[in-house]
Amino acid sequence: MKTKQSNSLERYYRNEWFLQFIDRSKAKPWQITIVSIVMVVGDYLGGSRIQFPFLYVIPVSMAAWGGNRTLAYLLALLLPATRIPMTWFWNLDQSVFDVAINLVVRVIVLGGLVYLLLALQSVRLLRGILITCSYCHRIETDGGEWKSIELYLAENSEALLSHGVCPECAVKYWGSLSKVLIKG
Question: How many domains does the chain have?
């Protein structure tokens, strides 16, 4: 029998089908390298009319989403640099300054993409309705098991918990000692 929580998660993933693909897509460095080479060749064959090589977003994103920070930043730096020799092969009348400015803009854009994708990976959200016991405050998991809030959050998020006592509970449980204990 499915719980309310598992039903809400299934509805979420059914509506957000692309998240299931993204969560499972961890490309190997050699695969990313092959895709990068294909994109550079495609960029060259596409000619000089396309000013921003949008194809470079693909291998950079693959590396970043796969968690390979070094490869992602390396590709964000090297792939735009491949446009430098292309400008001479295409016999474009661009000054060295123009080529350098274009290179810097492309590196910044791709580097920013890497930064955002790596930051996105570190975000873990709990969604849906969490069923909690009214008395002991434990949470029911998808498997029907009841776990403490601390254990559930530790397993399902990157949050770290610490215990303390709020002023109202300090007065309720410790009485006049609470003033001494809270002040230090």
Answer: 2
- 126 lies in a domain? no
- In the chain, the amino acid numbered 46 is G
Residue-number span of the structural domain to which 117 is assigned: 4-121
Greatest alpha-carbon pair distance for the chain in Å reads 85
| 0.90 surpassed by pTM | no
Residues 6+ apart with CB under 8 A from 168: none
Along the 184 residues of the chain, how does pLDDT read in single tens digits?
Answer: 445 555 554 554 444 444 444 444 577 888 888 888 888 888 888 877 777 778 899 999 989 888 889 999 999 999 999 988 888 888 877 788 888 888 899 999 999 999 999 888 777 667 778 888 888 888 888 888 999 888 888 888 777 777 787 878 878 888 877 777 666 5
